[in-house]
Each structure stands twice: as structure tokens, then as C-alpha cells.
Amino acid sequence: MTKLTFIEGSAAPLPLDNLDTDQIMPKQFLRIIDKAGLSDGLLYDLRFDAGGVPRADCVLNQARYRGVRILIGGANFGCGSSREHAVWGLQQYGFAAVIAPSFAEIFYSNAMNNRLLLVQLERAEVNQLLALSAAPEGGAAVLQIDIGQQKVFTPTGQVFSFPLGARHKRMVIDGMDTVDLTLAALPEIEAFERAHFTRRPWAAVM
Questions:
Q1: What is the spatial distance between Cα 139 and Cα 31, in angstroms, rounded to a whole number?
Q2: Per the domain annotation, does 144 fall within a domain?
Q3: Could you give the number of structural domains in the chain?
Q4: pTM attached to this predicted model
Q5: pLDDT score, position 181
């Protein structure tokens, strides 16, 4: 799989704290047996009214935010039920990364397992990016994310650093999920197993 070390794209502001997975991907879009068509359900109740008419006040319905690759959200992003469909929907819509002050733990794991980069920044830094992305002049702000350096670069010259564990960094850059990581460590696992049963032969399964 191609390495992913750099993400560049326009950013859309969605400053909602505690945006849960039920809002990100409503239940009526979970009836399918594969991943197809989930982009239609992404943030459906925020994007459309009860009659299915696009809401003009939703940033994702505004022309300047077409083709966005980065979403800037609020604290505790992705809380609620553990539905992987929320991650798949964000990716199908075109998002490669989400920036927020904090993420729900299960959503974080689901996202990294599917190569959706989550960038956690301080609230003040996120507020700066929200203001930048919501500025009325021209199109949406274009951000650059260097995954290797763990830095976000803005068009105005700001640079923000973000934490990323070695395991999750490898998963995103190399496109590996938890199964891939386990298989990659198979030689070490087998060596440990041999050493373990050499010391404790009575524990070996006959």
C-alpha cells in the first residue's frame, strides 16, 4: 500500500462539542451490508432538513467548502456508540483528517484502524484554525499536515505540533490495521512461544 506521509487540502469548520457517532452517521444508514453509499448519510440531519432539503447554514452545503479534505471539529469528537460506519462515511465524503481538541477513545481507535488521521491540538490552536477556515475571504483555507513530523501548517505561517503514538503513526503512514500489525510481529511472537514452551514444556498443548 502507498505510504501516506502528507495530507494537504481545504478545511471546513464544524465547531460542535460532543458530536456523537449517531449524528455523524444516523441509524437509518446502517442497514447496508457493505460500505457503499455512506457519504450520503454523513451528518445527514445537519446537512438536510426534515424534507431532505439542504440546509444553507451547514458548511458542507456551501460552495466554498466543496472538495474539503480536512474537518475541524469540537471537543470529544466521535463520542457515543461504537459504529465504524461514522469513520467510513467521513472517508467516503472525502475527509482524510479530522482536527479537534479531543476525541472519544473508541472513535479514535476506529479511525486510526481505517487510516483516517485524527489530529489532537490544544483548544486555543483549534480555535485559530476554526477562525481561519471560517474567514469570509476567498475559498476555504488550505492546511498541510506532515504526519512524519506531526505538524500542521497553515497558509498564514502558523505551525502546530500534535501527539501521535508510534503504533498509530505506523498504521496511518503504512496503511496497516491491528491485524496487519500482529502479522508483522509474527516472527517475534513465534520466537517468544518457542522460548516459553522450552522453559515450560508441561504447558505445551499436545
A1: 36
A2: yes
A3: 2
A4: 0.87
A5: 64
